[in-house]
Amino acid sequence: MELQQLYTFLIISKRKSFSLAAAELGYAQSTVTMQIKSLENELQVLLFDRLGRSIGLTAAGEELVPYAEQMIYLSKEIKKNISDTKSPYGTLEIGAAETLCFNRIPEILKVYKLKYPEVNVSVKFGNCNTFPKLLHSHQIDLAYSFGRKTDDPYSIVVDRQREELCLLVSPSHELAGKTITPEELAPYPLLFTEKSCAYRAEFERILNLHGLTPKIELETDSKPVLKQFAAAGLGITLLPKIAALDELENGSLTEIIWDGEEFEIYSELLYHKDKKVTKAMKAFFELVRIHTEEPEETMLSKIT
To answer: pLDDT tens, 151-160?
Structure first.
């Protein structure tokens, strides 16, 4: 059997259509049909139930899926790791928390692309809940997560940094620059991220310790919207400081000093324990380590 046959099989199983798979692959439908028939003849099984225009996997087809995925994955790993060059090359698929993409990841990738131009970098957005699955299914090589400490037993933590959260308001807000306790905060309207957000959950956990229920004025996953509403004086928002550096610098937002329990929120650099660490991954790990210790100017000086 050929890898292309297995890849075509996987595309059909996902699309549930020979014609859609052919369009995605850029093949004539007859070519796709021929590849599957050849694969079925070699395995001596029927892989798809064809019921009119709809299709579905047979029991044998269901069994083949994980094997096909593993073979496609291993072929990619061979291309990534087998080379006569010592420099990183190939592809690097990164799972990135949106919060870290406001400043940190773009700064790191700027240096990475300058130093390792032969690496093709792909970034997929996710969060601490989705990254373990993406790592396990080999959809990403590594994850740069933001949230609570991972409890996934299959993930190896390369780097972990405690992150600062801050309460942000318009400079004209009556609490701007003041120190405030959880009890003093409770009556004020809050602009919150969605419930699935790790640092919102951490904030609510602390309020619950004090028997308090937050007064939520707005819920959205859009951090730019939260910042705009806070800057317009419509409430208080809780965001990672890294996501609001520009606004704090230009004065459109001001911090409220939090006089409560510390937030247990971290950035983590992760990869799956069964993943072969490539040269491209090692190079990214090293730049993250340098970035946590030194500013971008120093990073650039180290590679020139």
So the answer is: 999 999 999 9
Write down the architecture of domain 3-81 according to CATH. Answer: Orthogonal Bundle (1.10)
Q: Which DSSP string corresponds to 10-69? A: HHHHHHT-HHHHHHHHT--HHHHHHHHHHHHHHHTS--EEEETTEEEE-HHHHHHHHHHH
Q: From 72, 54, 11, select the one nearest 36 (Cα to Cα).
A: 11
Q: Where in the chain is the domain with CATH 1.10.10.10?
A: 3-81
Q: Which helix (H) or strand (E) holds 300?
A: helix 296-303
Domain 165-258: give its CATH superfamily: Periplasmic binding protein-like II (3.40.190.10)
Q: Which residues of the chain, if any, have pLDDT below 70? A: 52-53, 80-86, 294-304
Question: What architecture is the 90-163+266-303 domain classified under in CATH?
Answer: 3-Layer(aba) Sandwich (3.40)
| pTM as predicted | 0.69
**Where do the CATH 3.40.190.10 domains begin and end in the chain?**
90-163+266-303, 165-258
Q: How far apart are CA 77 and CA 99, in angstroms?
A: 29
Q: Confirm if 257 and 137 have CB atoms less than 8 A apart.
A: no
Nearest Cα to Cα of residue 97 among 213, 217, 237, 268: 268
Beta sheet of 119-126, edge-to-edge order:
119-126, 90-97, 142-147, 266-272, 155-162
Q: What is the pLDDT of residue 52?
A: 67
- Distance, CA of 139 to CA of 271 (rounded, Å): 11
> pLDDT digit string (tens) for 20-37?
888 888 888 888 888 899
pLDDT value for 192: 93
Calpha distance 178→184 (Å, rounded)? 11
